[in-house]
Here is the input.
Amino acid sequence: MTALTLSTAGAATLRADALVVGVAKGTKGPVVAPGAEAVDKAFDGKLATVLETLGASGAEGEVTKLPAPSGLKVAVVIAVGLGPVPEKDDAYDAEALRRAAGSAARALTGSKKAGFALPTESAEDAEAIAEGALLGAYAFTAYQGGENKLAPKGKKDNGAKLPLAEVALLGTKPRDKAFKAAAERATAVVEEINRARDLINTPPNDLYPESFAAVVTAAGKEHGIKVQVFDEKALVKGGFGGLLGVGQGSTHGPRLVRLGYTHPKAEKTLALVGKGITYDSGGISLKPAGHNETMKCDMSGAAAVFAAVVAASRLGLQVNVTGWLALAENMPSGNATRPGDVLRMYSGKTVEVLNTDAEGRLVLADALTRASEENPDAIVDVATLTGAMVLALGNRTFGVMANDDAFRTSIHEIAEEVGEASWPMPLPADLRKGMDSPTADIANMGERMGGGLVAGLFLQEFVGEGIAWAHLDIAGPAFHEGAPYGYTPKGGTGSAVRTLVKLAERTAAGDLG
Here is the structure.
């Protein structure tokens, strides 16, 4: 991953490939942001004029490259848009800084080192810039740059350029505890987000339940996290009918993976549950053409949970965090679950499967019940669960449902604070009747309208009594199919990791009651 340093150098003395400065959108044209004073001086105080001449306005995400003047020791100056000038001097929003840094880092692909001289008035600003730059510099190149057998012998086909190698944050205080902690937190969290992105982007012929579990086991050993893997025999013995029913059509058997991070002084326990469908064909209820190509991303919830637990361990948070990864591959075959089949879940409830493409709720149901047995203070599940949530909220916002209004509000506020767009959604009791089954205790489908809420109501049936629970449907933002923007790449995004980590921090601090 891209290296991060807190630099004591000034903008005029830093030796690097490029220098990143901020420019805001003013009422009369671009306005040079704080942090760029030395650069503006090198342009004889005319940096804003030069940028305006080149068509720059300071709009969010706008990137303008300039050859550096002789007064600087870099080759290129990159002016990145911060959006409107804030009403209060220097009070740039953390997300604006995060996105600007991400846009600049993407523009610096192939560079060795760049200085970031964006507005930095506090350690929180430095952390936002660091997060944005490190997230923006991400590139998934595991399947590029190998031996090209059509090329001359011994020559490598290097494919895509490597991401920016080093980010130097200017205007920081390297010896200040708050700044050092901010840099360390940003590095740990982003490395785990990028781990999640790598997993999401990995082709399903290489990432399946068993191989996913092996990755988790290795990470557990590295970071002092206890990992327990329930294989097919254990799932059969335990009666995990949801996981087994979804996974039985594949040659790759299902797994339930438990991660346990504990702190000796912890007073609270937070359980995180992730949907881990490593490939979703829809099963017998096969997806239509055009809907299969990105279904390697259907394990994004499990990747987010995995990343969050490891981040909690790396940060040494004073809270116990368990992660439950419900892993299966949903495939059609002679062994696959059929529409009309009835599964007996781990909870003992029976479920009539009306649609095998509503499989995520089945594996999550088993994991939620198992997580509830340990009586945590709260449970949060994360899943790319329904297309209905994408229709409701679009591609960049995830839905938040809960059995406790205050808990739902807290998670929504946390998500907004860390820069992840979310929206609180209801669980209307009247929609539950649509899942009544003449054959089983409940069906896995209900009314089509409000389908995302129906899925949430289904999951609620499998949460232990008296446990605060929330459900994050990240179907929209988990996988980005368009052009990169800000710090968001094409492909897996690592959606919800920052929210889960902040939730763990708040729980450790006792801020959630």
